[in-house]
Amino acid sequence: MDFELTASMMCADYGNLKKEVKELEEGGIDSFHIDIMDGRYVPNFAMSLNDMAYIASEASKPLDVHLMIEHPNNNIHIFLDRLRKGDTVYIHPEAEYHPSTTLQKVINAGMIPGIAINPGTSIETVMEMLRIVKKVLVMSVNPGNAGQMYLPYVGKKYTKLLALKDEMHFEIYWDGACSADKILEFAPKGVKGFVLGTTLLFGRNRPYGKTLQNIRELRF
Q: Which of 89, 90, 41 is nearest to 69 (CA)?
């Protein structure tokens, strides 16, 4: 079973960030998930622009930048200027007056456009965005904090998106409370990638490579 694993870097050890990036890459991580929060769109502050830029400078694997900020179009350039072609940028459609304009800036910069869908956001309200983006990040928890509990009703949202993805040419990614049973259930159905945080990857006192190997060897 072919699926992608991305490390939620807001859960990393910031006292040894260079070492964290190196060990995750050597362990076989596919990309680095960067959560940017402004304290307004979500009630929390997470990673900074400088954190993102530092990881971009150290990593050879792609970055997946998740902008949980109000009106990203106003400042999208400061993120795009510090990323590499082929990196992904997710925005929340409801955080912007004209999200398609912001997504076009991501495309023009040579990066992969994506949207993030909150648990309370219906698929119907983002249908037209699905024709523009290449990736859809589905939040299985409310955005803003690590270590939250999975919201079971989100499973139906994945089912709806899986029925649309081939026609509209996008891939689906899981973010929040990602446990082994969720990968076992949803990877075979067509979910392309999974953001790994404290549930499976970080704070477990074992080498990242061993953990990632065990995840990839899950029996389907």
A: 41
